[in-house]
Amino acid sequence: MITVKCLASGSSGNSYAVDDGKSALLLEAGIPAKKILSGYLSILPRVAGCLISHEHQDHAKGADGLAARGIDLYMTSGTFCGIEDRFGKIDHPYRAHVIRAGEQFSLASWIVLPFETKHDTTEPCGYLLYSTVAREKLLFATDTYYIPNLFRSLNIIMVECNYSIPLLDASIRDGRVPEIMKPRLLRSHFGLENVKDFFLANGMQSVRHIYLIHLSDNNADPEQFKREIERSTGKPVTVF
What we know:
Radius of gyration: 17 Å
Number of domains: 1
Largest sheet: 7 strands, mixed
Shape: globular
Structural class: alpha/beta
CATH architecture: 4-Layer Sandwich
Strand content: 25-35%
Helix content: 25-40%
CATH topology: Metallo-beta-lactamase, Chain A
Number of helices: 8
């Protein structure tokens, strides 16, 4: 059985790990590498690499530090260039492996299929992960306003649920969020309404757990989101 761990989730930083008992994968490097390594100390000997979705600071600022400490990084060419543009050259570039959406590869006990996502970066992606040990399929998608693919036989879903329209509009009215930010949020992040549509469009029969990630501090209500997604899917939900 795949287990899911989280050190950080949200605009201040993102770091997750998935473990099938034989090998583990880090997902995102959005906090300092030292915190990532110490936070996942118990699974560190089994870590086969870190998958990065895009180059924004809250997802990639710890990438170079992980590479310096012997963790291989996997990302698209656009994300690799974006990280070097933002943070400087990766000191151990041989640790950075360029992948492409739609091209499957194996990583320890995992089969990884990157897929295209929609965000305001050059070449963002999500990941469909299959554990050959646990024989379970996990979907990881964050920082996207739309997922163009359909997926079947998913067992675990880790998906961004950044905002809801009513809460976003309330934040704008109360002055917590500038109105100019709304178009950008709608065209770069997954909201509650879109998440519900995504679940409706995909087969949910085999799903055993849903993890909602990357919630906004101002425009999300974790308890409401958990309640609504559990009601609409009939599946247990954890909010990170």
